[in-house]
Design a protein that fits this description.
The chain is of the alpha/beta class and 323 residues long. It is 41% helix and 18% strand. The protein binds uridine-5'-diphosphate-4-deoxy-4-fluoro-alpha-D-galactose.
Length: 323
């Protein structure tokens, strides 16, 4: 299969490219390398480009003629989105419209979209299934809801086939240690904790200890990046087989509090790194836990890394290799 992967040099994208490559697919990665890295693209070709450049995207699609597009390229930090909403609407909405335009112009109609648990806001029931109302509480989540709406409208209008995967908290690194998370500034909990353990940052702040959760800190459903990568491949197969538009959660169905993650990180690293309690971070919902029954039922997804310690261990192995 020929697959065009935007953001394929980034954290999640590069793991999906790795899996696609291992299965022998033909890949063209389109990435502006703003947060991604050339070394992370283990298979296929990399075209350095920005989705703001509509002509470049269209020409790339026109030349490559993919069977499907997987779209990772986006800004993803909840707290930053509260401070810089326009960056999120421009990058996540306008640039996605550019990509969709280019796809229609080149008759490319299969699309896997990176959506997020942040679309749900503060859910009333837990675990969350796909029928829960979408009430995002930050611009990041709102930008993803907007594109989901676009896709819902586009499907019947243009016979456009898509699967949107709503990711929960993606973490960990490739089991063979070749790739992992590598942002210039680590903001995600597990990576940040491990970098504190390494001495890259002085201490770890726990943002908010007064949430309505058992220990007062936020709860998240941490899913290993390789399980998420597998979900993309299965979603793609499902789309090729059925052509049916759909939206599916991807998480394990149980969560861990920030304090639990911190304790696990201390145990695995063997380092009692400094931790300080701090005020809440803007835009954070108290708890997000996935009901992924649909993904399992529809695509046959069976996670192989549902173990917080294993997730942290793979991330730690990766961190230790980095300078
Ligand atoms: N946290 C800390 N200290 C830190 C970093 C994070 O206490 O140094 C806390 C946060 O406040 C939050 C939890 O750890 O309560 C998880 O935070 P992350 O930054 O790791 O992840 P988020 O839940 O904010 O967001 C991530 C992705 C989003 C995605 C979301 C889905 O960045 O793109 O998961 O649940 F939408």
């Amino acid at each position: 299969m020929k697959v065009f992967v935007t953001g394929g040099a980034g954290y999640i994208g590069s793991h999906v490219v790795k899996l696609l490559g291992e299965e022998g697919h033909d890949i063209l990665v389109f990435d502006n390398l703003s947060t991604g890295h050339e070394w992370a693209v283990l298979y296929g070709r990399l075209l350095k480009g920005d989705l703001a450049d509509r002509d470049l995207v269209r020409d790339a699609l026109d030349t490559f003629r993919p069977d499907a597009v997987i779209h990772f390229a986006a800004s993803i930090q909840v707290e930053e989105s509260v401070r810089e909403p326009l960056k999120y609407y421009r990058n996540n909405v306008i640039n996605t419209l550019n990509l969709l335009d280019a796809m229609l112009e080149t008759n490319t109609t299969r699309f896997i979209y990176s959506s997020t648990a942040a679309t749900y806001g503060i859910p009333e029931t837990m675990p969350i299934d796909e029928t829960a109302p979408l009430r995002p509480i930050n611009p990041y989540g709102a930008s993803k809801v907007m594109v989901e709406q676009v896709l819902r409208d586009l499907a019947p209008a243009k016979d456009f086939q898509y699967v949107a995967l709503r990711y929960f908290n993606v973490a960990g690194a490739a089991s063979d240690g070749r790739i992992g998370q590598a942002y210039a500034e680590a903001t995600h909990l597990i990576t940040r904790a491990l970098k504190v353990a390494k001495g890259e940052y002085k201490k770890l702040f726990i943002y908010g200890t007064d949430y309505p959760t058992p220990d007062g800190t936020c709860i998240r459903d941490y899913v290993h990046v390789e399980d998420l990568a597998l979900a993309h491949l299965l979603a793609l197969r499902y789309l090729m087989d059925t052509g049916r538009p759909d939206i599916m959660n991807c998480g394990y169905g149980h969560g861990f509090s920030v304090r639990e993650v911190v304790e696990a990180a201390k145990t695995i690293t063997g380092i009692d790194f400094p931790v300080e309690e701090a005020p809440r971070r803007a835009g954070d919902p108290p708890a997000l836990i996935a009901d992924s029954t649909k993904l399992k039922r529809v695509t046959g997804w069976e996670p192989g890394h549902d173990d917080l310690r294993h997730i942290i261990k793979t991330a730690w192995e990766w961190e230790k290799k980095r300078i």
